[in-house]
UniProtKB/TrEMBL annotation:
It holds the Pfam family MFS_1. This is Choline/ethanolamine transporter FLVCR1. It comes from the Eukaryota. Keywords: Cell membrane, Erythrocyte maturation, Glycoprotein, Membrane, Phosphoprotein, Receptor, Transmembrane, Transmembrane helix, Transport. The chain crosses the membrane at residues 83-103, 123-143, 150-171, 177-197, 209-231, 251-271, 307-326, 346-366, 378-395, 401-426, 438-455, 467-486. Belongs to the major facilitator superfamily. Feline leukemia virus subgroup C receptor (TC 2.A.1.28.1) family. It comes from Brachypodius melanocephalos. Uniporter that mediates the transport of extracellular choline and ethanolamine into cells, thereby playing a key role in phospholipid biosynthesis. Choline and ethanolamine are the precursors of phosphatidylcholine and phosphatidylethanolamine, respectively, the two most abundant phospholipids. Transport is not coupled with proton transport and is exclusively driven by the choline (or ethanolamine) gradient across the plasma membrane. Also acts as a heme b transporter that mediates heme efflux from the cytoplasm to the extracellular compartment. InterPro entries: FLVCR1-2_SLC49-like, MFS, MFS_dom, MFS_trans_sf. GO terms for biological process: erythrocyte maturation; heme biosynthetic process; heme export; mitochondrial transport. It catalyses: heme b(in) = heme b(out); choline(out) = choline(in); ethanolamine(in) = ethanolamine(out). It is a multi-pass membrane protein. GO terms for cellular component: mitochondrial membrane; plasma membrane.
């Protein structure tokens, strides 16, 4: 356990603290008696009188609201614990994503083991999507009202509970129990997906907040990648030996349960509500702001009045829902044309996700460099459409190498689109909460994912994988049109051009709140 006491390094500390001096008294995150921040240089006007340069109006409003003089200096420190918090969260997010895909990539194995149909196995993946939609608003409220630590413990705890319930479903007649266990893991996911930006803002400094957010998100994607790769290796298809199959499934289930439990206890040890010292000036301001100043209801209303956001909400749901559907049905598509290639189906899924992780990083770097949000989003959308068309018409050629290549290209653009959508949403909805906009985007993705998985699964079963993929192509083409209609109003970028590292949040009344964004 890493302590945040006096032994802690004062990395990036903004307050000048004399060596060997006793700790200074803190008042709501501010150092009493300190002069203005270094950025407010003094000017000497005619008459010899020195006067401090005026602070930004937003900063003055925030400090005045907190009952603190604008010239006060904030004390900020970076806690060494932040790295442990990020690592533990990334790990249990990884395990949760692994549990989402572990059934779908072995759909033929589990369908034979439990004696159920492929659509019933598909529901073991879709339950994640079904649970997210009604629970996202309560989960977001819980995070705001009860804080980070409780939300993290709920996510890690439910993840472990669902994993242990699966260990009781190691018999052919226990499909209802394994579905219940997967539903518990699905509820855990609701308390996990919304945490990356909060962890990054609360624990990390302004120069590393975006990197921390990206690492937290990549943990979930890496879990999906491992979920494609590991289950086919651990559970080979042995339809003539159900006992051996149950033994192999048990190894996977018990291993997942043990790891999940360990991560739950680590969450209890490592996670705290916030560090002893705020990591940035904006977090110090947040500590003195009354929470009732922020109106969650008004933020939702504002978002639904924003036409460009509504267009993005639908187009993002189409693209991400199509990705969820392809991931869920990948095993069925592969084994339809390549019988007995369950392991390679998992490797193709791994290729799809890993290529997507690379695409996410490259797209993020490109956006940071060019700020061409709409152009980049539209180009990636078009390339995803082309990639899916090529994948659909080359899947049955009989060459697995071709499927690996087309799957990798498809994953690069489809998964690379995910951070583009989030960042574009933040730009066009500023100054609304990025947590609220991203939550609505995720909810849209889950709804489209459910519909697409059901329809594509039916088309794949009754006709062919090509029919299901053509269905997705048609919807992605609609998404291209909607994306082209979005008005590119880069509000956050325009503000950052004059006020760097400050985002004014939408609140009730005339109050202001500032946070770091990721």
């Amino acid at each position: 356990m890493v302590e945040d006491g006096g032994e802690e390094e004062a990395e990036g500390e903004s307050a000048e603290m004399p060596a060997a001096a006793a700790p200074l008294q803190r008042c709501n995150g501010f150092l009493p008696g300190k002069e203005a921040a270094a950025g407010a240089e003094r000017a000497a006007p005619a008459g010899g009188e020195e006067r401090a340069a005026p602070a930004a109006p937003e900063a003055e409003a925030m400090l005045a609201a907190g009952g603190v003089r604008p010239e006060a200096r904030l004390e900020t420190r970076l806690s060494r614990r932040r790295l442990a918090v990020l690592a533990v969260f990334s790990c249990y997010s990884l395990v949760n994503a692994f549990q989402w895909i572990q059934y779908s990539i072995l759909s033929n194995v589990f369908a034979g083991f439990y004696g159920v149909t492929f659509p019933q196995i598909d529901w073991l993946s879709m339950v994640y999507m079904v649970a997210y939609v009604p629970l996202i608003l309560p989960a977001t409220w819980l995070l705001d009202a009860r804080g980070l630590r409780l939300t993290a413990l709920l996510g890690a705890g439910l993840n472990a509970l669902g994993a242990w319930l699966k260990c009781g479903s190691l018999a052919p007649q226990r499909y209802p129990l394994t579905l219940t266990a997967q539903a518990v893991c699905a509820v855990a996911q609701v308390f996990i997906l919304g945490l990356p930006s909060r962890i990054a803002s609360v624990w990390f400094g302004p120069t590393e907040v975006s990197t921390a957010c990206a690492v937290a998100v990549l943990g979930n994607q890496l879990g999906t990648a491992i979920g494609f790769l590991l289950p086919p290796v651990l559970v080979p298809n042995t339809p003539n030996d159900i006992d051996l199959m149950a033994h192999n499934i048990g190894i996977m289930f018990y291993g997942t349960a043990i790891v999940s439990t360990l991560l739950f206890f680590l969450t209890g040890v490592v996670f705290e509500e916030k560090p002893k010292y705020p990591p940035s000036h904006s977090q110090a301001v947040l500590q003195i702001k009354p929470p009732e100043d922020y109106s969650y209801k008004q933020s939702i209303i504002n978002l639904f009045k924003n036409i460009p956001f509504i267009l993005l909400l639908i187009s993002y749901g189409i693209m991400t829902g199509a990705f969820y559907s392809v991931s869920t049905l990948l095993n069925q598509m592969i084994v339809t044309h390549y019988e007995g290639e369950e392991v390679n189906a998992g490797r193709i899924g791994l290729t799809l996700v890993v290529a997507g992780m690379v695409g996410s990083i490259i797209c993020g770097l490109w956006l940071d460099y060019t700020k061409t949000y709409k152009q980049t989003t539209l180009i990636v959308y078009i390339l995803s459409f082309i990639g899916l068309v090529v994948f659909a018409f080359t899947l049955d050629l009989g060459y697995l190498t071709v499927v690996f290549v087309t799957g990798g290209v498809l994953g690069f653009f489809m998964t690379g689109y995910l951070p583009l959508g989030f960042e574009f949403a933040v730009e066009i909805t500023y100054p609304e909460s990025e947590g609220t906009s991203s939550g609505l985007l995720n909810a849209s993705a889950q709804i489209f994912g459910i519909v697409f998985t059901l329809v594509q699964g039916k088309l794949t079963t009754d006709y062919s994988p090509r029919a299901g993929n053509i269905f997705l192509c048609a919807w992605i083409f609609v998404g291209i049109i909607l994306t082209a209609l979005i008005k590119s109003d880069l509000r956050r970028h325009n503000v950052n051009s004059g006020i760097m590292n400050l985002d004014v949040k939408a609140v009730s009344g005339d109050s202001f709140t500032v946070i770091d964004t990721c």
